[in-house]
Amino acid sequence: MIGRDPLRWYTRNAWYVAGFSKDLPVGKAMGLTILGQPLAIWRGADGMVRAFDDRCAHRLAPLSKGRCEGNRLRCMYHGLLYEDDGSVSAVPGQTGIPPQARVRAYPACEHLDWIWVWMGEAADADHDLLPVPNGYNPKEFVFGYGQIDYAAEARLICDNLLDLSHVAFLHSASFQSEPEFADRLPLVSAVDRGVRVRRWIENTHGSSTRRSTAPVDAYQTYDFLVPGILLMWSANFPTGTAAKDSKEILPLDSIDGLSLTLQAVTPMTDQSARYFFYSGPHCRDGDEAKRDAMMEMAAQAFSEDREMIEAQQVLINIDPARRIVPSAHDRATTIYSGIVRKLNATRFAVAPCGSKEQNDVDE
Amino acid sequence: MIGRDPLRWYTRNAWYVAGFSKDLPVGKAMGLTILGQPLAIWRGADGMVRAFDDRCAHRLAPLSKGRCEGNRLRCMYHGLLYEDDGSVSAVPGQTGIPPQARVRAYPACEHLDWIWVWMGEAADADHDLLPVPNGYNPKEFVFGYGQIDYAAEARLICDNLLDLSHVAFLHSASFQSEPEFADRLPLVSAVDRGVRVRRWIENTHGSSTRRSTAPVDAYQTYDFLVPGILLMWSANFPTGTAAKDSKEILPLDSIDGLSLTLQAVTPMTDQSARYFFYSGPHCRDGDEAKRDAMMEMAAQAFSEDREMIEAQQVLINIDPARRIVPSAHDRATTIYSGIVRKLNATRFAVAPCGSKEQNDVDE
Amino acid sequence: MIGRDPLRWYTRNAWYVAGFSKDLPVGKAMGLTILGQPLAIWRGADGMVRAFDDRCAHRLAPLSKGRCEGNRLRCMYHGLLYEDDGSVSAVPGQTGIPPQARVRAYPACEHLDWIWVWMGEAADADHDLLPVPNGYNPKEFVFGYGQIDYAAEARLICDNLLDLSHVAFLHSASFQSEPEFADRLPLVSAVDRGVRVRRWIENTHGSSTRRSTAPVDAYQTYDFLVPGILLMWSANFPTGTAAKDSKEILPLDSIDGLSLTLQAVTPMTDQSARYFFYSGPHCRDGDEAKRDAMMEMAAQAFSEDREMIEAQQVLINIDPARRIVPSAHDRATTIYSGIVRKLNATRFAVAPCGSKEQNDVDE
Q1: How far is the CA of A241 from the CAs of A251, A253, B239, in angstroms?
Q2: C neighbour chains, 3+ CB pairs within 8 Å
Q3: pLDDT in tens, C20-56
Q4: What is this structure's pTM?
Q5: Rounded distance between C-alpha atoms, residue B325 and residue B358, angstroms
Q6: What CATH homologous superfamily does A138-339 map to?
Q7: Across the interface, do B322 and A91 touch by the CB < 8 Å criterion?
Q8: Cβ within 8 Å, pair B60-C163
Q9: How confident is the model at residue A211, as a pLDDT?
Q10: Using CB atoms, which residue from B307, B324, B328 is nearest to A59?
Q11: Would you call C169 and B101 a contact, using CB atoms and an 8 Å cutoff?
């Protein structure tokens, strides 16, 4: 039913976003499949988030339909009671607990506005690998929140985010980008477990929600980090800033239009993914009305993305061996694929489409 | 499309419920797949029910879309006419009938309020294997009728019915059972081609539709018989009856709350089943209003069952080799599985999930 | 996902109908899968229709979501620009064009009211193989247009059209045919790349939309041509015409009731097909009101066909090896299958159901 091989492309030793903190109240459980593995994610009475394999040891019923009892989780089919380490402390109708009555517990935590689950071995869980926005404080932004399910594998969405030249075509209606946007290549560099992509548009009046009456140098920079996390900010700077481009340019040195978007692509199965995002202006440059305008525009654009990527997935499925022909804009994608490949213990993991050989060139 | 192996778990030499008699009028045909075999089930002008393989010999069109002509069935694609033994007596446009123009006819009959089809060899059809309620007359009850389709294999529904401890958790809202219900084990014994499960709740004021003002000993007993038939009655007895428990206890010796439910689980494919049920109070203890209240409660509970079992099926499909960890409440399930295994000519029939080895322990 | 073998039954060296000309305006692209191959079909500024493989060479995005720019097609994911021969003339962000950046272009044309695509090698495309109505001018008819998608393989729809005896049963409600219609065999003969089927009903008052007050000899004749094109006209002639049946009988020699229907069955995948049809009376014998009445009747009948054929497909899928038992009315089907088989380079192409051996008897 679910082919496992394409999922081997993804690094298990990483924190995957499982949802927004706000969406899991105290005493509730929810289900989400990550990397083909159904998980029960729940928040005990103490407010802590836990993640279990979502199948009761007894008869494989979903624990995500379970009931939180303090900091324990009760399977609501036949009533087995789980401690927060995945062990069973009660089986109705009997006193002894067989040793195999337990489920795997995954390290889980909260960071930024998200719940994260570590999909590798618990002993390897490393909180230093949670992505940290560099040079700005997310709490100063006015955010809107959303998520979209894709009938497509996560890698195609990552590819989409690693090459934003597509906004010139796919989003010409929603973001009103000019075709010229795609004529210039962005500045691409490797960072720790990811890629940094930076773009200057000089002497412009801006575009979409970031219009300016006086000419400015518009700047956009994002890090795209394993296993599929995008941290991007945009802002306008005085004309001339681009010419003396500094890698240490700071968001609050901008003159206006500062906004932030945080996005995460979580592989559910080899043919489905959940895309989480939140976005908004800095409180200096916008309010809830501006945030709502940005979210409305994003909703249209993300719908354009999904329609294209799901159609692309259908075509890939019909002829999975078909090779891609990379373009100059694929540079960030190529670097990122190389990083993922190196992180994988299994060096020759099966790639999801014929793109592997051409994408995975070292730079 | 339809894997056959899991269906080998089910005994072919058995009567399977194909529907309610009331739902198949004279002169009508209907389709139902049993054990992966599409059947056309029809009632001729003489009122007798017949069952054919649901594919015309000519071009494999469904005979369940056919037209009854007296005691014959006409294929409504190109008009072949079938006698009630499955032979063809007319082919439009020609006079001769080729000998291979015939379909398999299955023994069919009516019993209780159901239509039954024998899925084994016709020569082996044995009317003595139709289940007979013991010690009560179904005609004295005021019944409501229903059926539910499951996207799950029948065996999981049988497991559900063989261990009613789940009502304490899964049906805590609908049946308002107490968790304590699951703390006590029922009395389980083997009967001919099935299992008998009996439960006393002593000195109780009852639960759900069977509440009592004075304390009573509440009794519930059911036989679960091959290939998936449940015959259950419940009633209240004077306190003290449980203490001197007699296996020959009779329904009409009860003081009130006597009700009956007859249920049948029919495997359609290896991933789908139809669940037929009818239930109601004895006319001594209830009327149509009480029957309606019972059916409403059952509708909610059966919906809880279906949601859980379909989710369980999804999880089993993701990891079909995963073993279960049986509990003390699985005793009836284990005995029943042993009976099924012995009935099967193919001793090592493939089990639908990893539960085989652990379930099929002889007792 | 898409099994290829059953599609090998269909001749690639043929023109397949891809849609109605009226449905593809200048400057628009549309997608259609033919023989398992997704195609982007588009009409440039010059009004000419082109057909490409529907996957951009870059990252396999659908070109059917592309934008026509003059007589070029732009991929709207990352902006590659295609010439009408399938070569790429621009890749945003770079100057060089890699040689493998191209897609296959298929010969396409317009004929009758349809768009046609040649699915074989382009060098073999032969416009003489476009079907030409013989003895009548389609422009003199008042047409209605329609199309239906089937969840069934095209061959089953071809079988349906090659044996119209089914109207006596399947369409007894919609076309109000008598069962006697199926008692008589039509006159069947081979024509170039197809079969001709002719039927006289002598001394009749007609049926369905072709009723007559005085008795007439009703005539119906159609050619069914590779790869699934039906050209049929019907009309009433003076009584006695049937007795002196002439193969050169002309439509306009009829006294009334002259109507025409053109139909095409296009295999999309091995389990899906699109059925295109247009029909109407000759302007001598009917107007738009009569055309609308014919179309309404056809809509009901085609819905009966689809329901039966999709059910037939389900049954075939459950037991693909099951053989059919041909009847006398299968003669046209048998001849047509022989023609298809001879056209196929691969003589022993896999047939879609067990019918091959019995159908493919030479006559």
Answers
A1: 13, 11, 91
A2: A, B
A3: 999 999 999 999 999 999 999 999 999 999 999 999 9
A4: 0.92
A5: 8
A6: Naphthalene 1,2-dioxygenase Alpha Subunit; Chain A, domain 1 (3.90.380.10)
A7: no
A8: no
A9: 73
A10: B324
A11: no
